[in-house]
Amino acid sequence: MKKLFAAAGLLAVLWAGGGVQAQEAGQPQVAFDWQRGPGTGAIGQRAAIEIPDEYVFLDAAETRRYVEWTENIPSDEEYLFGPTSDKWEAYFSFYEEGYVKDDESLDADELLASLQESQAASNEERRSRGWSELVLEGWHVPPRYNPDTRTLEWATLLRDSESGNTSINYNTRVLGRKGTMSVQVVARPEDFDAGLAEFKASMDGFAYNAGERYADYMPGDRVAEYGLAALVTGGAVAAAGKKGLFGVIGAFLASAWKLLLAGLVGIGVWLKSRFGKKGGR
């Protein structure tokens, strides 16, 4: 497989046995145990995704190593999936927050106002750290729920107050019997539209395991204290006592590979910009 890097020439990619080794000039080699398609990637004991030809997958331990190597903060347990073209990546994380009822309507204007209020508060923290403020300008994709696939998606537009650079924060939640699967999609801005289309097509190969599906709900199962709207505003993550880690499609300067969106939805969110320093696939 051929690895494409945002900063061409920074890394040398070397093949060795079943793994892939990546090396930054003057730095030790780092190997990642990529699972290559065709095959099936196990997302813990909860779900699985089909790995087509020319796609790769990392288990939780390898994803943690990869995220740390790219100088980002990993979540408790996440799994990487994406094409070998490196045009986008998806990170799967499960939040065991209970069965989320999907019978409420979504008011996009009201939800946006809530997010903007939270972002204004988060900018105080950003200023204290010497970081530029982030302006939440509006929706790129208003919140929408597909009852057939039990999938909630939305995307916000963010602008850096100093550089003027913008980003698209894309989020997906797939409802299950015992919680929700968060899927973070990361892509270069120029690859966003095509990458998002490919990601959605690849989700045809995603499925919860038997007994974990939304339709497998049984009376007596734990039910979440919130609905779809809270998944958008972050209330679900806050209530579960977890750290929100949402998918980001960024258009920031090459020097800003890691950016903390502190409290975008009331809690810390790390922008995962992978494209300056990445392991070969």
From TrEMBL:
<keyword id="KW-0732">Signal</keyword>
<keyword id="KW-0812">Transmembrane</keyword>
<keyword id="KW-0472">Membrane</keyword>
<feature type="transmembrane region" description="Helical">
    <location>
        <begin position="245"/>
        <end position="271"/>
    </location>
</feature>
<dbReference type="Pfam" id="PF09935">
    <property type="entry name" value="DUF2167"/>
</dbReference>
<feature type="signal peptide">
    <location>
        <begin position="1"/>
        <end position="22"/>
    </location>
</feature>
<dbReference type="InterPro" id="IPR018682">
    <property type="entry name" value="DUF2167_membr"/>
</dbReference>
<protein>
    <recommendedName>
        <fullName>Membrane-anchored protein</fullName>
    </recommendedName>
</protein>
<keyword id="KW-1133">Transmembrane helix</keyword>
